[in-house]
Amino acid sequence: MRLVTSGRVAIGLALRALGVRTGDVVLVPAYHSPSMIPPAHWCGAEVRFYRVHSDTSPDLADIDAQLAAGNVRAILATHFFGIPHDLAPLRALCDRHGIGLVEDCAHCLFGARGGVPVGSLGDYAIGSTMKFFPIYEGGCLVSRRHRLDATLHGAGAGFELKAALNALEAAFAYGRLPVLRALLALPLRIKSALWDMLKSRGRTGGGGGETPSALAPSSSDSSFEFDPRWADKCSSWFSRVVLRLASPGRIVARRRRNYLDLQRALEDAPGCRPLFPRLPDGACPWMFPLLVDQPQAVCDALQRAGVPMTRFGATPWPGVDASLCANSADLGRRLIAFPCHQSLDDGERAWLHAQVRQALESCVAVPA
Residues of the chain whose pLDDT is less than 70? Predict the structure, then answer.
């Protein structure tokens, strides 16, 4: 395993390991995050998009048709929202054509389908550890089929400090670790003042050195960019310690419980249905995806209430629209995903259930 700073870095390293280069084509699902595309461009490849079914699984017929166009070197297949797809048919298709398969487990760090662990069918598999652990940055690259040759280096003391402090500040913002928050209050205020000063100097051109934003990858701040400077950097010491100390069994059990509790709370809610009718055995969900009939009105209501949510796929890569994949466009428009994080307490979960249900009920009569 190689622990890197983001899932997109892991995608780039996987494609590079498969020999993807200028003139090659990488197939990517039409339902996607824009951050999945730049790693292929970093390798010099062209990206083409394949259709997905309404449950986000890959459309093998469309993939097979695109292989006839030639030059396809690799296919990226994603387990969306932590629900593993059956990738055995795609694996067989890749083997017949001599094409590399990158299993995208950014939403699916843990879990199995039919006894087959996620990540084991791809030539390489990638994960996004910061989606599952309380860390500021983190991704991973694994392979059960190939040796991992990527050599990684530390990113320096500034990065290590920023990764630790940002993770702690995020925990404090959510009301966690109150004793530690009190102890670090003064040092963190001093850090914030110094940071603001450094950013101000960078904007006015007085710093002359590395800008503050270069201390950490932009992927940690929700950008879609790919910065090649982070392709050979390992994840921070803080993140690696958290991964070592965390309990995967606890994470899986609590995420499944939280997912199922929210599903039960919304069973008879109007104007919606879960993307997946049931949570499969062995799946560890990233979020709870809900298809909503009046998505914009519901989103507006949820935002006013301060409800955390994700509209994955709502901003596709330019040119990817309903004419390319109707299912992808529909998912991007209608789907709202809600947290089922392992650290949600009973009060937070009850509040989330009530707010989502209230937003849905208040928007039943709102025109589409």
Answer: 195, 198-199, 201-214, 365-368
DSSP per-residue letters across 15-46:
HHHTT--TT-EEEEESS--GGGSHHHHHTT-E
Distance (Å, whole) CA 91 – CA 197? 52
> What's domain 248-362's superfamily in CATH?
Aspartate Aminotransferase, domain 1 (3.90.1150.10)
Q: Which two tokens stand for residue 321?
A: 């629209």
What CATH number belongs to 2-142? 3.40.640.10
For the stretch 139-185, pLDDT in tens is 999 998 999 987 899 999 989 988 998 899 888 888 888 888 888 88
Q: How far apart are the first and last CA of the chain?
A: 47
CB atoms within 10 A of CB 205: 7
- Phi (first) and psi of residue 341, to 5 degrees: -60, 145
d(CA 286, CA 255): 8
Say whether pTM exceeds 0.85: yes
pLDDT for 365 equals 62
